[in-house]
Structure formats: structure tokens, C-alpha cells
């Protein structure tokens, strides 16, 4: 595949390495420095684009790829308030977009088991649940996209929780969740690549379900595999649609 990389930071550079290892070619790299000078024609030789940029840039990049008729994988998080309008535009314009808060296989297994766990614990009202996410100090968004996906999986399967609220450690803002609110606690620590924990606590015990990324390699490889999966398709997809864990 001929790939356009939108965003060439920590993730973009690693994705280039994995793409080349799998026999693909990076034909264009776009970052903040050259974004303004990029024209639709610059994208037209490529087969697919992969965006790991910033929440604001991702929305602009999505529009650019739709205009250029270029299928697009979006790994950037922090733009999900606009998800519905992007989905509508994508489908109306007959384009192809796959997005995901986390492309690692481990986290996608975690997403699946998280829902099963929530369903299993749901009848036992003595347990309260919360989500914790830890990331590096450079991260622009909170809570993490992964934590939002985890929270959505819990909300779908837990009668007592209706929405999530976010508390950022050290922000000075005290968040006291109501009983029907699921707390997502965000911590920012040095260079942590991404750790997510679901905690179920009762008076007598605690169940912890945790995923720890040791590096960003799983995310980057997953993004390249997602691009391979998307090629030739039309529509609006989530990364979870690539997996079938029930077989
Ligand atoms: N879904 C997943 O599996 C994962 C998602 N992520 C998400 O991916 C995103 C990027 O993460 P990461 O690589 O760590 O971040 P970095 O800050 O390391 O890189 C961001 C890149 O985006 C570039 N950029 C800024 N504006 C634009 C623009 N208008 N067009 C194109 N590129 C632009 C920056 O350019 P410059 O350097 O010139 O400023 C930089 O190269 C984040 O939202 C993060 O949450 C991260 C890991 C996994
Ligand atoms: O910004 C990051 O680094 C990460 N972002 C994604 C998220 O917001 O969930 C995925 C991963 O945890 C790393």
C-alpha cells in the first residue's frame, strides 16, 4: 500500500517502521510544519491515510481525505464529540473511515472481556465500579479515548451507571461522582505509554482488571493492520469490527 501519514510524532514515526516492515511504502508525511501547503492533488497517488495527529488536526485531516477520496484510519483521540457528524458525512459522501481509541490486540481483547465482566457483576449491587487511566505527561486529551471506550462498555452492561465523569489528578478540581455516574480517574505520569484499570470494589473485596502497555509498538502495528483491513472497503468502521472474539 502507498500510505500518507498524517501526524509524524511518536506514533507516526513508529507506524512508518511497521508499515515498511510489512512491505508498504510511505509516500507522504504531513505534520504541523507542512500541513498548510498540502493540496488535494498531493494525496491522490496514495492508497490510504493514517492519522495520528491532534484532536483538532484530525477533524481537518478527515475532511481533507474525504475530499481526496482517500480511505483513512484515525488513531487520534479527543475528537469523539464530533463522531456522529463525521459518521454522517462519511456515509453520505460514500467514503471509508476506520477509527479506534486503541489499535493494540491486547486492548481489544480487554474491551471484549470488560463488557463480559460488567455483565457478570451487574446483578451484584454491592460492587461499585470505576476506571483509572495513566498516561505520559504530553497527552493532550483526558480521559483517554481507551478509557472512554472502556466506560461505554461498562455503561452498556451495568444498570446502576448512566454516564461517566472524569477527574484529573492534580487539576485542582474535585469531582465527586453521583451513584449513577461512573468515575474515570486520569493520572499523568512521566513517560507511561498507557495503563488502564477497571476496579470493582465492595466492602469486603476488590476486583481489578488491568491492561499495561509496555511500549507503543502494539498500537502502531495494529494501525497498519487496520489500514490493510480497510483497503477496498467503503463505510464508517470501528477498530472493534476487525475482531471476532466469539469464535
Ligand atoms: N488509537 C491508538 O491506538 C492510539 C492513539 N494515540 C493518539 O494518537 C494521537 C497522536 O499521538 P502521538 O503520536 O503520541 O502524539 P505526538 O504529539 O507525538 O504527535 C502528534 C503529531 O501530530 C502533528 N500535527 C499537529 N498538527 C497537525 C496537522 N494539522 N496535520 C497533521 N499533523 C499534525 C504534530 O506535528 P509537529 O510535531 O510538527 O507539532 C506531530 O507530528 C493522540 O491523539 C493520541 O491520543 C496514541 C497512541 C495509540
Ligand atoms: O496518547 C496516547 O499516548 C495514547 N492514546 C490513546 C488513548 O487516548 O486511549 C491510546 C493509548 O492509550 C495511548
UniProtKB/TrEMBL annotation:
NAD(+) binds at residues 32, 75-77, 100-103. It catalyses: (S)-2,3,4,5-tetrahydrodipicolinate + NAD(+) + H2O = (2S,4S)-4-hydroxy-2,3,4,5-tetrahydrodipicolinate + NADH + H(+); (S)-2,3,4,5-tetrahydrodipicolinate + NADP(+) + H2O = (2S,4S)-4-hydroxy-2,3,4,5-tetrahydrodipicolinate + NADPH + H(+). Its EC number is 1.17.1.8. Its main location: cytoplasm. Residues 1-103 form the Dihydrodipicolinate reductase N-terminal domain. This is 4-hydroxy-tetrahydrodipicolinate reductase. The keyword Cytoplasm applies. NCBIfam families: dapB. GO terms for biological process: diaminopimelate biosynthetic process; lysine biosynthetic process via diaminopimelate. Pfam families: DapB_C, DapB_N. GO terms for cellular component: cytosol. SUPFAM superfamilies: Glyceraldehyde-3-phosphate dehydrogenase-like, C-terminal domain (SSF55347), NAD(P)-binding Rossmann-fold domains (SSF51735). The active site is at residues 135, 139. Keywords: Amino-acid biosynthesis, Cytoplasm, Diaminopimelate biosynthesis, Lysine biosynthesis, NAD, NADP, Oxidoreductase. Gene3D superfamilies: Dihydrodipicolinate Reductase, domain 2, NAD(P)-binding Rossmann-like Domain. (S)-2,3,4,5-tetrahydrodipicolinate binds at residues 136, 145-146. Belongs to the DapB family. It is found in: Cytoplasm. Pathway: Amino-acid biosynthesis; L-lysine biosynthesis via DAP pathway; (S)-tetrahydrodipicolinate from L-aspartate: step 4/4. GO terms for molecular function: 4-hydroxy-tetrahydrodipicolinate reductase; NAD binding; NADP binding; oxidoreductase activity, acting on CH or CH2 groups, NAD or NADP as acceptor. Catalyzes the conversion of 4-hydroxy-tetrahydrodipicolinate (HTPA) to tetrahydrodipicolinate. Residues 106-241 form the Dihydrodipicolinate reductase C-terminal domain.
Amino acid at each position: 500500500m502507498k500510505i500518507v501519514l498524517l501526524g509524524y510524532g511518536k506514533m507516526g514515526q513508529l507506524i512508518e517502521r511497521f508499515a515498511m516492515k510489512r512491505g508498504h511504502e510511505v509516500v507522504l508525511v504531513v505534520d504541523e510544519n507542512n500541513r498548510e501547503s498540502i493540496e488535494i492533488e498531493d494525496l491522490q497517488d496514495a492508497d490510504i491515510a493514517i492519522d495520528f495527529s491532534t484532536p483538532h488536526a484530525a477533524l481537518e485531516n478527515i475532511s481533507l481525505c474525504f475530499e481526496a477520496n482517500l480511505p483513512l484510519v484515525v488513531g487520534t483521540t479527543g475528537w469523539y464529540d464530533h463522531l456522529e457528524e463525521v459518521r454522517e458525512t462519511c456515509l453520505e459522501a460514500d467514503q471509508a473511515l476506520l477509527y479506534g481509541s486503541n489499535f493494540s490486540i491486547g486492548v481489544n481483547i480487554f474491551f471484549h472481556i470488560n463488557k463480559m465482566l460488567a455483565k457478570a457483576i451487574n446483578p451484584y449491587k454491592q460492587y461499585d465500579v470505576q476506571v483509572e487511566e495513566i498516561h505520559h505527561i504530553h497527552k493532550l486529551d483526558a480521559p483517554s479515548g481507551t478509557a472512554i471506550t472502556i466506560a461505554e462498555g461498562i455503561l452498556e452492561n451495568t444498570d446502576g451507571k448512566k454516564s461517566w465523569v472524569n477527574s484529573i489528578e492534580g487539576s485542582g478540581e474535585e469531582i465527586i461522582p453521583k451513584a449513577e455516574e461512573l468515575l474515570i480517574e486520569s493520572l499523568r505520569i512521566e513517560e507511561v505509554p498507557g495503563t488502564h484499570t477497571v476496579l470493582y470494589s465492595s466492602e469486603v473485596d476488590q476486583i481489578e482488571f488491568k491492561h499495561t502497555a509496555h511500549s507503543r509498538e502494539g498500537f502502531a502495528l495494529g494501525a497498519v493492520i487496520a489500514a490493510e483491513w480497510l483497503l477496498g472497503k467503503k463505510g464508517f468502521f470501528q477498530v472493534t469490527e476487525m475482531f471476532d472474539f466469539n469464535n
